[in-house]
Structures are given as C-alpha cells and as structure tokens.
Amino acid sequence: MEDKQFELRKLKLKELEAMGIDPYANGFTPEHTTKELVSIHASKSPEELEEIEDVFSLAGRVVSKRDFGKSAFFHLSDRTGKIQVFIQKNSVDEKTFALFRKLLDIGDFTGVRGELFKTRTGELTVRVRELFFLTKTLRPLPEKWHGLQDVETRYRQRYLDLIANQRTREIFQRRSKVINLIRRFFDERDFLEVETPMLHPIAGGAAAKPFVTHHNALDMDLYMRIAPELYLKRLVIGGLERVYELGRMFRNEGVSTKHNPEFTMVEFYQAYATYDDLMDLIEDLVSYVVNNTVGNTLVEYEDKKIDFSRPWKRVNIYETLREEFGPSIIEDDKFLFSKADSMRINHNGIRGKALTEIFEALVEETLVNPTFVYGFPLDVSPLARKNDSDPEVVDRFELYIYGREIANAFSELNDPIDQKKRFMDQVEMKKKGEEEYHEMDNDYVSALEYGMPPTAGAGIGIDRLVMLLTNSSSIREVIFFPHLRS
User: Fold this and answer.
1) How far apart are the C-alpha atoms of 477 and 486, rounded to whole Å?
2) Is 27 left (phi over 0), alpha (psi -120 to 50) or beta?
3) What span, in angstroms and rounded, lies between the C-alpha atoms of 223 and 11?
4) Which fold has domain 163-312+369-477?
5) How far is 71 from 101, CA to CA, in rounded Å?
6) 261 and 250 in contact (C-beta within 8 Å)?
7) How far apart are alpha carbons 194 and 263 in whole angstroms?
C-alpha cells in the first residue's frame, strides 16, 4: 500500500513540475504562528473577527483534509501547534483550488495567506486567499500517524514519532527547558561554561569502560571521554575557580531502560567548597529545575509520587549496613565477603566494592524521594578527599531519586602524593580484572603538584533527570536518537 502511495505521489510531483510549480520551493516566510493566532484571537467573537482587516500568513504541514467539492477544510501544523484552514472555490483562483484538491496531500508543507473567521462550531479558522506549495512529500504518514505507538518505529524513525505524537514533542521541549534552566542556574552563580576534549589519551574521571578509537596522523589510540573531570580540575588549577560543562559522555557498557552508550551530563567544580556545600547547591539546582518545569514539589512518576520538598534525606552507607547486619559487616572481612558472595556480588576481594554493592542491593530501590547517600569507602573513590574523622571513607555523596543515581559528588583530592598512590592502587586493581578502574595519569598528578585549591565537584545525569520530570519509563524516550540493535 505504501509503495502504491509512493508511486502515486511521484506522479503528482511530476505533474507539479509540468505546471511550472516548484515542488520544493523556497522563499515563503510565514509572519505568524498557529499558537500566536490562537492565543490572541480564539476568544474573539465572529463579529470581532470580521472587523479585523489584517491578512495573516502561516506555513506548516497538512495533517488532515476534508474535501466537500467546492470547499475544503484542512489543519495546518507548525512548531507551535495547529490551526484549521478553509479553502473555497470562489475565494481563490481556479488554478489554486484545482491544485489543492488534486495535488496537495496530507503530509505536504504549504504556506497560506488569509483572514480569520469562526466556523459554526466556534473553531478559529483561516480563510485562504493565497496558497503556496512548499514541499511535496513522497511517503505518506503512517496510517495511524495521529497515535503512532510501535516502539521500534518511534525510536528508529524519531521524525515520524515527532510528527505523530504530541507527547513526544512535549518531552523534548521540556528536555531543552531543563538544560536551559541548568545553564541559567550556573551562569547566575558566576560559573563559567567551558568545553574540554572528547578524545582522551587516557580514560579517566569515572569507573567505566571506554570506547577506543585510533588517530591515524598521530598513530595513537584515543578514548571517547567517560567524564570530563580531570580536564575540568586542570582548569581549576589554572585559576578558573568555578567551571561547568554540559555535554555528551560515552561509556561502552550495557544498553537498558536506564543506560545508553552516549548520554548527557553536567559536571561542575567550585573552589573553596566542600561536598556538604554541594549537597545544598544540588538541592537548590534540582528544586529550581523542578519548580520551573513541573511547578510542583510532588512529581508523579510511574506508580508513585516523588516528593521534592526540602530538606532532603541524608543516609550514611556504613551506618545503614551496621544497622542491618551488625558491626561485623564493617570490621570482619570474612563476614563481609561471605555476605557479598551470598548475594552474588562480584567483589574481587575489594572491601569498598563489596560494601557499596551490598548497600545498593539492600537500599537503592527504596530511595524514592531525593536522598543523599554519603560515607563511601576509600578504595572505590580514587579522586575524592579522605574524611578528616575517618580516613577509611571519603567526602563523597550520590543523589538517588526513585532508586536511581542522579548525581555523584565529592570534595576533590588535591594532594598530589596521595593521588599518585591512589592511581597506583587502581592500576593493581585493574590487574585483578577490574576493567573499569582508573589508569595512571601522570600529567594530572603533575598538574596537582602546581596546586589546586580546596575544591568540590559533581556530575548530574541529565537524561535520568528528564526521565523523572516527563514521567518517561525508558531513557530512550528522552534521547532523540537512542542506540538500538541493528
């Protein structure tokens, strides 16, 4: 059926060309949008509309068409919405009317000029005086374009999804708004937006498996960045005391409803701040975004309501594990690893990994409302500062909402001697099979030797935050072009 439609539309294309009409014309500039006309004039009476002498011009896609012989109605859709259009044989020249009836299909783009009136049902409508063919479409919209539901089609052909589903457009409009709000928040607090490399000679800044590529001219392997952390901290060392970067990260890991190989993150660093300061800052930031998008501290997500009311809960990993298993879970490695084994946790004899993954298995899914989790073990936090009271843990926290990690933050390790030792420990762990652990980065250590002020930094996952604020159950719903199997 689609092939037949394709061939029929190609014949119409040739007919347009034979009539001297460019089926892919350029130069028509609409002076108005559908939203503008509806917002200003929809409340006016038919008599008030008759008194308006202005001619309005619009352009968009034809999304419906009802032909009554000597007249017809169609709906025109642009980036702001849609409006009804009326064309009548005695209101336009004969060629234009014939052109509309015979050659204009649903899906085509057209420009119109005309006056406003209201139909008997009270719908604001544009009466066509001039019609301009702008783009001839060769493929018809999906048969059920007004409610395209097939997930594979929606993700693989996002353009059809955007045409067919108003909700999809609203999700991505909200995503853009969230990103703009985040930028505004940091700009107003004297943070400088920066750009750092996406191709790294050493994969670092996060515990993740990188994508590897090769630069021919330099004859060297490079890694798509898994995080911008080490470059951003170099900028702090250089004197840029407040920096942030909003951009794509790449991790060669699994694909799921919560993971995509490339994703968007905002990462920021503030000199003379602690991880406690960043808890307050992130609470300010997320609350600011929620209030300016949802407009409510109660956000409906799937089957629950997430309460963003402040202050947010704070949970200590070690205290939680002690309460659940007793002090042995912290003090007795044999007991710890036995418990991890019973929970099928692959810990490789690394205490911190066993502790954090037991905590995640035990508590993560219960953290529905925004919750700061802190008290992370030293050996899983190679870039974080040791806690002054307990050197076995670091000044680090993660923000969980609806059982998902949304942010990771810590007071930065700025001791170059300690940092070099931590890198060396990470290299040893890699030899044990921990592929996601850090490489030795001598250049970063050298940078620290020039001195980094006391600093705290954080990364926030934009995609997961947008999922929460659009009630989207899959990360693929909030990424224009998610990665899928062939």
Assistant:
1) 18
2) left
3) 50
4) BirA Bifunctional Protein; domain 2 (3.30.930)
5) 9
6) yes
7) 18
As annotated, the residues of the chain forming the CATH 2.40.50.140 domain(s) are 2-141
> CA of 331: how far to CAs of 325, 345, 404, in Å?
11, 19, 28
The one-letter amino acid at 204: G
| Amino acid letter for position 62 | V
β-bridge pairing 124-135 and 81-88: parallel
| End-to-end C-alpha distance for the chain, whole angstroms | 25
Whether residue 246 contacts residue 462, with contact meaning beta carbons closer than 8 Å, is answered with yes
Residue range 140-168, pLDDT digits in tens: 987 655 557 788 888 899 999 999 888 99
What the block records as the tokens of 220 is 């060297």
Quote the pTM value. 0.92
> CATH class for domain 2-141?
mainly beta
Place of tokens 């498996």: 209
Bridge-based pairing of strands 56-67 and 71-78 is: antiparallel
Lowest mean pLDDT among 86-90, 134-138, 201-205, 406-410: 201-205
Residues of the chain with CATH 3.30.930.10: 163-312+369-477
50 φ, ψ (degrees, to nearest 5): -65, -30
Q: What is the pLDDT of residues 304-344, one digit of tens each?
A: 999 999 999 999 999 999 999 999 999 999 999 999 999 99
Neighbours of 254 (CB within 10 A): 10
